[in-house]
Amino acid sequence: MTKRQARGNIRRLAAGLAALLAAGLAFGAAPARADRFCNPADSRAPCFLAEGSYHVRAPEGAGPFPAVVMLHTAGETGADIVNDPFLVAMVLGRGFALVAPTGRPQRYANGSTETGWHIRQTSTGGRDDAAFIAAAIEVAAQGFQIDRKRVLLTGWGNGASLVWEIACLAPSTASAYAPVNGGFYQKLPDRCRAPVRLMQVHGRGNGFWPLDASEVETRRGVATPVPTQEHVFLARRLNGCGEARPRGGDTPPGTEIRDWEGCHAGAGLSLILHDHGNAMSPALFDAILDWFAPPEPARRVAPPGVGSIFRRPGEGTGAFGKRPPGQ
């Protein structure tokens, strides 16, 4: 089976399970609340700006709503995110809106051309994606009653690189940042503009983004990723944080969460380390959402990770674990 066929099978499975969710039959999971999107007749239809497109799934009713803005990895689109039934159920189930911009075709070091994000360090020409994301958030906030003071920007792989770039160079774009298995290439910036609230997520043994210097692989013609550990050191200095402490209470299996104390007012730093590599389970995503905005107990929705970006160990890679084709 080719990679394209496998991706198609996953999407068809997700579409089928979305229909089951709508009927309230899927594994006993609560369906997402009624929602709104760009085109009432077609949830896959995007909203358009002069610079590109984005997708939205927003709760019905009166806002303003907190929002999760999610940046896909290389080769995907915003439509893949907003049509993932379990992801939508988890986000809308908390009363959040989901915004999913789409990247533009990028030429990668392996010779392929796939959708992705223009990263200043490793891309030449192309759209200013940091400015595009900011514009998409502003327009979506007006059209879908999004609370601009409660916006989480997250993404994985190539998307995580843009999350870090925006957090460093345009920190007012969002109120919190959560890059997953990704960050800067080649070297860290000399300085960032302001402290931020940030949670770094890293899956040990993910196969493409190193945790520390011992895992760095240098390949000719391919940009070298800066280890996650160095990103955490950068965020600690930027935010003026003191010592880290392990988080008490319940954590997902195989997961360690650390929180840094004494950060600048309004800033914060947390790190999720887990043993599932490229797998992103509902429990891990719940931990990110809990950090962003602790839920009311009745709103928590944690459906099973089947036919979705969410994967349990051994279920193969989903969108969270797709290897970037190189920068």
Top keywords for this entry?
327 residues; two-stranded antiparallel ribbon; 26% helix; eleven-stranded mixed beta sheet; alpha/beta; disordered C terminus; Rossmann fold
Task: Summarize, please.
By secondary structure, the chain is an alpha/beta fold. It is built from 7 helices and 13 strands.
Q: How would you explain this protein's 3D organization?
A:
The protein has one domain (3-321): Alpha/Beta hydrolase fold, catalytic domain (Rossmann fold, 3-Layer(aba) Sandwich), CATH 3.40.50.1820. Helices cover 26% and strands 22% of the residues. The chain contains 7 helices and 13 strands. Helix 5 (158-169) links the parallel strand 8 and strand 9. The longest helix has 20 residues, at 3-22. It is globular, with a radius of gyration of 18 Å. The relative contact order is 0.15. The model is unreliable at 1-33, 300-307 and 310-327 (pLDDT under 50).
Helices and strands, in order, run as HEEEEHHEEEHEHEEHEEEH
User: What is the arithmetic mean of pLDDT?
Assistant: 80
Low-confidence stretches: 1-33, 300-307, 310-327
- Which CATH architecture? 3-Layer(aba) Sandwich
Principal-axis shape equals globular
Helix content: 25-40%
- Total strand segments: 13
Our estimate of the beta-strand percent is 15-25%
Strand count, sense and closure of the main sheet? 11 strands, mixed
Query: How many helices does DSSP assign?
Result: 7
- The CATH topology label is Rossmann fold
What is the strand and helix layout of this fold?
Layout: H1 3-22, E1 35-36, E2 47-49, E3 52-59, E4 65-71, H2 78-82, H3 85-92, E5 97-101, E6 104-107, E7 113-116, H4 129-144, E8 146-156, H5 158-169, E9 176-180, E10 197-203, H6 228-239, E11 244-246, E12 255-260, E13 268-274, H7 282-292
Parallel strand pairs: 4-5, 4-8, 8-9, 9-10, 10-13
Antiparallel strand pairs: 1-3, 2-3, 3-5, 6-7, 11-12, 12-13
